[in-house]
Each structure stands twice: as structure tokens, then as C-alpha cells.
């Protein structure tokens, strides 16, 4: 294939994925507001459009038109850089995620931007860079609440990154590869019975991942960095207008990415839960779209769980949070590695 | 392609390193060091060391430098003061550094005639190859490093805790 | 489009970065910046390790970089703890003012 064709096709893929991703981010916000509303026995947004479906559009417009205030005490270069770092790290990780079956067209993968041998490591490294957005925003704001929030956030994210990384080792051991496509292929054989969460015996790892991911994305019950009762807004207290919106989008983008990763690593990715029970469809379009449907459905279920947890669980205290990460999640993740490798070596 | 990528990221690395020296505030220096490390990760990718490239970002840029920025934020030490420094550094240091660079470059250039050309199609060292060597031939050093890290953790905790006993 | 780069360019880049690290070590006055210059030197050496590993098709060169990273992580943890306790005792990180052996 010619170079220019490769470049053009990649660009098209990038743009399509970004547009879909950003729309998904906007509608995740709506989903959260609706669900939390229902959990708290109220309606949530319902005025704009049918069932409030146009609410994200209006929200975006509002944030865009707000006055952009830069407080006089901030350290300007880093204050401006921080939201960019947060948002770009959040958008970057979507590049290695395969959304559908590995179908190719003229040698190009259709349903993922790029398939890499080290896809999982890239996800981890992007997550680890994402800390800077939060750390720098709090420090450069020159505000004690922001600083406290960002100190909390960076300590929390470094601590939980360990448990997060270790919980994935079991999955990698089973697949023998760091490529996300290979990891899904291992789980494709018998439908739900061979998904890592059940047949792979990684259910402990799944829950460790779940909790570590909540902490990594600073979501309830681990949302100490932006605990509004103690820190007003946390690290983004001093941000307004589009800069605030960037942090907001980054947070929800991270949620979706975490959902995609959980789907790929533990819930069988784009494979159907029925495995061979349903014969594969003959129609090429159905063959392409069915995996996409399963992927989106699984990510949706994961996001639902995410919001459900936020709506029902109270917030941790900070020392409890650190103790939980270091004294419980980390040893459990290590035991899981030992167990998985023992079983794999005996099989 | 390789040449273009090499030039871009070599330039980034050098600019980051120079900026590290010029910046007066430690947090700016830390950020320029992160730029250097990330561009080195890209150079590792060009050299076919994909696992190392990611380890570079995860370990250096994502863990070590986060610790640095964390400490800078925690101590909130402001701008570096302009001090006299040591006279030995000026009179002996800089000539010595210049000599060091000259010697290194001369050695590399003289030996470099025997070295090959590097291109993008050279193939990559897969994680499998790397781990086979690491866990078969070099198992003992690997285990020793883990002990070293454990000692470092204990040491860091012992040093950073307050003296009055209650952690 | 498949251009090549001679291996010695990578080595010269590594030498230049190392030298910049040495210069930083000499001219920086803040403990934490000096520590960063040391990290820069370590990184520069790593680059030459990877280049040689590629040149001689030896995986062990890359393993060496891996070990350097692990040792650097340990070193950073202990070093930063030392820096924190110095700051607690002296209230400054300027090296010229930390020239006494005892309080």
C-alpha cells in the first residue's frame, strides 16, 4: 500500500474514532446525570429535547460561551498546559483499543486505529502520564484547596497504579501476549465460559482492577481529590469555561477508556457471550457489526456499574484510601499473580 | 522516515536538556526532563526496543518524575537563588566538561566507521525475547534488584518519617 | 522513504546529553535540580546501551537498561526521602547553605 493512502486512511480512522468518542463522552455525562437522578429519586435533566437528550449539546454550548477567567495569582504557563495534558492523555489511549473483530480492508485494520504488540503497555504508560495534568493544575493554581486536591490525586494515582498494573499481569500470563487483539482472541473460544472473568479464573483480578480503576479516574468512592465538602472543587477549583470543560471531558473520557479496557481484558472484548451456540452469520455486514454491538453493550454495562457505585457508596477517608490500596489491593493482586502462574504451569 | 523522526526527537531531547539547565524553577526543570525522557522513549522505539520504550515512559516519566514533581510541590521551594557557586566548578569544571565532550565525540566518530546504518525495517526485539533472557540467564540479578528495591522502600520510609515515632 | 541513520549519530546524541547532565550538575544550585541532572546522565547512558544492543543484536544490552531503570527508581525513592529530611532540618534546598555536617 502506498504511503499517502496509509496516511489518509489513518487520518479518517482517527477523526471518526475521535468524533464518536467525544460524543460518547458527552452522553456518558447525560447518562450519569439521569442515573444518579433516578437513584436519588428525581428525574435528572428532562427539559431539553425528548428525555433531555439534547442536554449535552446545551451544556457544551454553555461552557463554551462562559467567560474564561484566569486568576491573577496563577503560574500561567503550567496553568494553561495542565488541562491540555489531561485531555490529550485521555484521548490518546483510545488509539490502541480494538473495537471490533480484526477485519482488514486493503491491509488496514477497520475497527482500531493501530494494532501494536505492546498495546497494553501503551495504555498503562498513557495512564501514568495523565497524573501530570492533575498535579500541575493544582500546583499552578496557587490555591490551597487546589494544591491539596492535586497532592491527594497524585499520591492516590501513583499508589493505585501498582495494583492496577499487577492486576493485569494474570490476564497477560494467560494470553502470553501484550497485544490487546491476542488477549481477546484467547477469550473467544467458548463464549462467556472462556472470558477471563469466568473461565480464565481472573475474577479476583477483575475486582482489583475495578477498584484500582475507580481510584485512578478519581471517581466515587475514591473521589478524594475533588471532594467538594472539604476542598470546594479540588484541583480544578480555579478553572472556568473551556479549561474546566477539558478536565471534565478528560475525566469522562478516562471512564470510557477504563470501560473499554475492562471489556477487552476481562469480558471478552468484541466476542459474543454465546460463543459457538449461535452459528456465525453469513452476511458480511452482520459479521462486521455484531462484534461492534457486543463491545458497545459491554462498555455500556461497565459504565452503568461505574455510575451505580457512585450513586450508592459513600466516600472513603484519605488514610483508609491509602491503607486499602497498599495493604489490601496490592497483596491481593500479587497473590492473584502467584495463583495464576501456578495454575498455568500445572496445566 | 527514520531520519526525520530521529532528527525531530533528537532535537526535542537536546532542547529539553538545555531547558533543564536554563530554567530557574525546579518544576520547569522537571517538566523539561520529562520531555527528554519521552523523546528518548521514541528513539528507543526507532531502535526496535519497544518494551524498553514503554518501560521508559512508565518508570521514568510516569513514576520517578512524578515523585520529583510531587516533592517540588510538597516542599514548594521557590526559584533557585543566584549564588556564587564554587570557583572550582567554573575554573576546572567547564574546561573538563568540554574535554569530556570532545573525547567522547572523537572516540565515537573514530569507532563509528565500523558501525552499521540503522533503519526502520530492522525489526524489533519482542517482549518474549527480552523476558527469556531476563528470566533464564539473568534470574539472579533480577531477584537481587527486587531485594534492592525493597530495601530502598524501607529506607525511604525510615528517612521520610518524622522522628517522634508516630509515623 | 526508508532512510537510514548511522549508529554513531545516536551515540553522539547520547554523549551530548551526558555532557549537558554534567554541566547541570555543576551549575545547578538546588538539590532537586542537581538530582535531575543525575537522572539526565543516566538516561543518556541508557540511550547508548540501546544503540549498542541494536548494533550488535544483543538483547542483554536492553536488559542492562532495564536494570538501570530499576536502580534509578530505587535511587530516586531514597534520594527524594533524603531531600525531604534535609529540607525539614534546614528549611532550604540550596546546596551552598547545606555545608555543615551537623545542625
Question: Your description of this structure?
Answer:
- The complex is a heterotrimer of chains A (347), B (167) and C (103).
- Chain A contains eleven helices and two strands.
- With 347 residues, chain A is mainly alpha-helical.
- Chain A has one domain.
- Chain B has two domains: 2-79 and 87-125, NADH-ubiquinone/plastoquinone oxidoreductase chain 6, subunit NuoJ (Four Helix Bundle (Hemerythrin (Met), subunit A)), CATH 1.20.120.1200; 126-167.
- In chain B, α1 (2-22) packs antiparallel against α2 (26-46) and α2 runs antiparallel to α3.
- The model of chain B has no long low-confidence stretch (mean pLDDT 83).
- Helices cover 76% and strands 3% of the residues of chain C.
- Chain C has three helices and one strand.
- At the B-C interface, α1, α2, α3, α4 and β1 of B face β1, α1, α2 and α3 of C.
Mean pLDDT of chain A: 84
CATH architecture call of the largest domain in chain B:
Up-down Bundle
Largest interface: B-C, 85 and 71 residues
How many domains of chain A, as an integer?
1
- In terms of quaternary structure, the protein is heterotrimer
Encode the helix/strand succession of chain B as letters. Answer: HHHHEHH
Count of helix runs of chain B: 6
Ordered list of secondary-structure elements with their pairings:
The complex is a heterotrimer of chains A (347), B (167) and C (103).
Chain A: H1 3-39, H2 55-65, H3 76-92, E1 104-105, E2 108-109, H4 119-141, H5 144-175, H6 180-186, H7 203-216, H8 228-231, H9 241-266, H10 284-312, H11 318-346
Antiparallel strand pairs in A: 1-2
Chain B: H1 2-22, H2 26-46, H3 50-75, H4 87-111, E1 117-119, H5 127-137, H6 139-160
Chain C: E1 4-6, H1 7-27, H2 31-55, H3 59-90
Helix pairs in contact in C: 1-2, 2-3
Please tag this protein with its features.
heterotrimer, A: 347 residues, mainly alpha, two-stranded antiparallel ribbon, 11 helices, 1% strand, globular, C: 103 residues, Helix Hairpins, 3 helices
Can I get a quick summary?
The complex is a heterotrimer of chains A (347), B (167) and C (103). Chain A has one domain (73-346).
